[in-house]
Model the fold of this input.
Amino acid sequence: MDEKPSSELSAEAGTEQSVAVSGVADGVSERRDPPENGDGDTLSDVLDIELSAVDDGQTETDIVLWEDPFVQDILADVDAYFATHRDETFADAPSSEFVATRFFDFSVFDDYDLLEYRWVNEPFALVAIVYDDDEMEHRYLVVEPEMNNFERYVRQDMVELLRNQLMYKEFDEDAERRDLFEREAKQMILDNAATVEEGSLHKLLYYLVRDFIDYGAIDPIMRDPAVEDVSCDGTAVPVFVYHREYRDLKTDVAFDRESLDSFTSRMAQRAGKQLTVSSPLVDASLPNGSRVQITLGGDISTRGANFTIRKFADIPFTPVDLVRWNTFSAEMMAYYWLAIQNNKSLVFAGGTGSGKTSSMNAISFFIPPASKIVSIEDTREIDLPHENWIQSVTRSPLTAEGRGEVSMYNLLSAALRQRPEYLLVGEIRTDENVALTFFQAMSTGHTAYTTFHADSVETVISRMQNPPLNVPVQMLQDLDIISIQQQTYLGDKRVRRNRSTAEIQSQEYDTNDIHIKRVFERDSTTDTHEKVSESSLMAEIAADRGWDDAELAAQLADRARLLQHLVDEGINGYVAVSSAIQLFDKNREEVVRRLDAGQLTEAYLRERGPTVEDLDSMGIDLRTLIEEE
Done:
């Protein structure tokens, strides 16, 4: 990425942003300010007046030529994009002069040091990390095309025309909705604003699509793969993001009250919910899989409506990612690999944001590819590289009386009749029936994984045994591994680490107690993962497989070596990693031979990875996959 941090929102900046936010999707203010020459004329009259004004040399603002090297790079990207992405059905590419002088307003960077920036919707939207020397903090800026008063006026007329034209149309899928909208918007722009400059037409189409189809003012943020959480705390308050590298950052995006109320109401509708005075709290999944919590402004939220979005990664983290970030060591990941292949059950525990679900998802790469998997969640977070996978999500009641609800317990009970080899439950919270059914599944031979809120092995066991879960000791003894995740600091940087990996040991002579054996512990002074005891679980696997100690050591060492090789070579893409794991499981000797010969390359792994058809059957967009990798 190329990037910069952000400043306090001035009243002027806040107002400007609220205009950008208030597109169709978010609710456009009904007050319309036509250009000075408009004076109540029709749209076509206004266009002619505006064009003549431009011809006479009357410009709304002074032309500014941006000379900073990074600005020149951005403008070159815009020119290059339009040169290679011509739309014969819409408008010609804007001139280089238009791009250089009237496309972006880079004065937002004047008070900061630009650290890096990233295109999130080229050539219209980029995000930047900047540093504010005065406040000594990083900020997050969103850069989108600048619109003058005339362009805003045309945009607002297009909004009203499109809203009326599309009001009663129904769409089967989001893709169909987008395609139809873009066709209608392009045609309407050409019919009503054909004399507007090409550059203005492209900007107009961008904002219409952004606000009707996408996520309005926060759409660039939603497109940034480095952002994990997005939160708006109320009216005229800057939106905050949780960035994978820079942690909590203030953005230059804010909503006025009208825009925020409209935006949150529309977002709830997109999630299939209604945000009303009688139902002021909404917890749901957005169409892209992200989790959203929305609160209606008023009695229970005195600063206005608010929302928090936990983004769903289009491409899941791989085991190599977790080793690369030092969440786990290669040795630990090899341990999990062998345990999962040999049907050992485990629980990932930790606090909010500690990486429990990401870790569970990543280690699921080790599940044999043909195994039948059933996953059960409240909101969609699990994403696996497997075809033989049933993905189940709970459903809220359809009526006020509670009819139509499909609970996690309902889905879990149904899953046991589907004969899964591996059962993944998004999280065990406070439902005793869910907890008992989950552990009953383990006791009847199913391999099961879940996540749990607890900060230590002892806390996991204590909370499981006591109300409201009340899991009997005998059932807990069927669990094999407890993995404790934590979010901690490394200097001033917040990181995720596996704090402890422990095994539950069954004792034939003592069925009324839980015995714990810690195998790996994190040394916080060196930020390393240490093996603190020999694994009884690995010894049990070796005995079942007929391996001696040397063979067990070789099995673990070869897996750790492969994972470390992928880390060292920067091979962490979805396709290459899943290919490497599957090739190892099918022909370990060949993979080791290629490692010895230096022939295990990314190109080799990609050639043998999932095909386009495989990815499509798993619901993965190949274009998104390639862009991410």
User: Anything to note?
Assistant: The chain is about 40% helix and 20% strand. Residues 2-62, 621-629 have pLDDT under 50 and may be disordered.
